[in-house]
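Preliminary data (for renewal application), magnesium ion complex.
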Amino acid sequence: MSQIDSREALWLAPYAFRSSMSAGRVHPELPHPYRGPFQRDRDRIVHSSAFRRLSGKMQVFTGDMGDYHRTRLTHTMEVASIARTMGRALRLNEDLVEALALFHDIGHPPFGHAGEDALRDCLRGANGFSHNAFAITLAEEIEQRYPGFPGLNLSREVLAGQHVRAGKKEGIPHPILEVQVVEAADSITYNAHDVDDALVLQLVTIDELREVPLIAQILEEVQSSYSAASHVPLRQMLVRRLLDHQVGAAMDYAIHYLDTCGWTSPEDAKHADFVVGVPPELLPMKRGLEKFLFQRIYRHPQLLRVRENAQEQIRKLFHLYLQEPERLPQFFRMRGENVGFDRAAGEYIAVLTDSGCQQAYHENFPGMSAVAR
Ligand code: MG
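Predicted structure:
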């Protein structure tokens, strides 16, 4: 038994996915002397070009709006941190959880969901565009690391987890718990950090947030128990507690279920009446917060201007590349011969950072200023 297998045998729960259960990689590789398969995936993801570019891609707020708020990269790191906490406490495969979390948003185009919507529209005649599906394309076809084949050659489990994200609206059976933990950590994380960022950017006030029942409840709790610590901003206490409240509730719910369910294999998660996440009784409150975030933050007039500007740049670049594919970098020009120039143009735009997209726009449309930001 390898060192990894014996450690996992000692530590992991019966329903955790063991490294020895991996279906391997499309291009077979010998085992590594001291890293398990999912540690290798984690490392490949961190060393990929697409992962580094996440630092230049917006989560919700652009780089012009200050330097406090999250980028797509710091969001990803927060998700990985929370997902690992949850995975470790549930005695799941923490390496797999971490790899899945670091991978989950790697396919995001520039300008967040605004960029994604524009690309989906541009590519509507060619199967559209989804950042979740594009993560798989990046990992299998676009990243170049090995002489004999394209892609990162990730484990089938990491790719399968991302396939679940890419098709999550199609009612497939539940994925393994490691995938579920990342899914739960993602929404818990952005709910909390988007509140934090929006408060710092003064797009919303704490008083306005009180209309959200979950926030009102937490504020009441925080203000009564922390009144002596007035040097700590109320915002910090609210956000910390908002995160802790959701993660704590999700963990209590999961531990209670998993302690008594009698599962003996990771496969048992597939058809169970349980999914990792905040418990059903907390879900309406979480949805209430998400509705507020959507209406009052994500559709804030300041962000709508960013959205229009980004979409105009992406649409114009896309149509230009389609008409004049010679403007594309060589890799994507060659790729266009195989996947079609519309897809290759969309993919090239999708790999760009926010500033890379702006730069490409200004180079290709000199003198044309984009909509005011
Ligand atoms: Mg995410």
